[in-house]
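To assess whether ligand presence alters the predicted conformation, the chain was also submitted together with adenosine monophosphate. Input:
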Amino acid sequence: MIVLGIESTAHTFGVGIMNSEGEVLANIFDSYSSTEGGMVPDKVVQHHEEVAEKVLADALSKAKVSWEEIEFIAYSAGPGLDPALWAGYKKAQKWSEKYGKKLVGVNHCAAHLSIGKEINELEDPVYVYVSGVNTQVITFDGGKYRVMGETLDIGLGNMLDKFGRVIGLGFPAGPDIEKLAKKGKYIELPYVVKGMDTSFSGILSKVKQLYEKGVSKEDLCFSVQEVCFAMLAEVSERALAHTSKKELLLVGGVGANKRFCEMLAIMCQEREAKFYKVPMDLARDNAAMIAWEGFLRKDTHGDEGVKTFWRVDEV
Ligand code: AMP
Ligand code: MG
């Protein structure tokens, strides 16, 4: 069975094609970026509308499949940026009508987790899901996902992007922060873990203040990374300890950060667990994962409309 997936929860518009054996036949995306202003909703919608048909054509040609071979269309129903979700849903509806394919709306977060589990052939990992909007430690228990801990305010990726704007970096800022951090040294920042939850907005305010007082970008980048990643390593370790699970899987765009991976890998090694990540094109927002999640949910999900605040523990 071949499934076509559509992703459009935030900056990325993507079309992915997978077969039921878990093979990625195509994973094409085009992401909105900007030198200033962050993610402006109207511009994101405009971007998605402009690139959609080209992304679709590229995906079909990469996968060498025709619409006849495609069983159904899976799309990201939520959670996400509302106007971006609608842009994707409208495309999904249009292609569904035009090519006579049924719609399967899936949860974007669940898709990040499922593709990571499939690619790494895992049994039952603890998931650390760190993207722009989301920062959650998740386990699967009693037939559903459980959020063991999460950010109480903004996601770590968004925090890095906001911090990046303050110090003059474009969007997304994560990769440049990682580069600058290599030249920095440690200065003290608030470390905010409450039980299993984390919070990043206070750290953001603090680094803004320190930057205005003349602390270097490099030192701030280094310290932000060390503190935030250590906070997540702490809650991830506690999740492994509580559940006695032996696999830790990092998903989401912040997972591109080498220092973050290194810290989680060391923590896992010290407690005889195994650390896994996902190749970047499947870890970031992408549509192959949406196709795969659609395949897993085809019997229970249908046209779900748009679900802007759909939590992974409600799936
Ligand atoms: P996603 O929403 O999963 O596509 O992830 C996007 C987020 O990942 C953005 O907030 C980026 O700033 C962040 N990001 C991307 N690359 C890196 C990196 N190397 N280090 C830290 N954050 C990153
Ligand atoms: Mg995402």
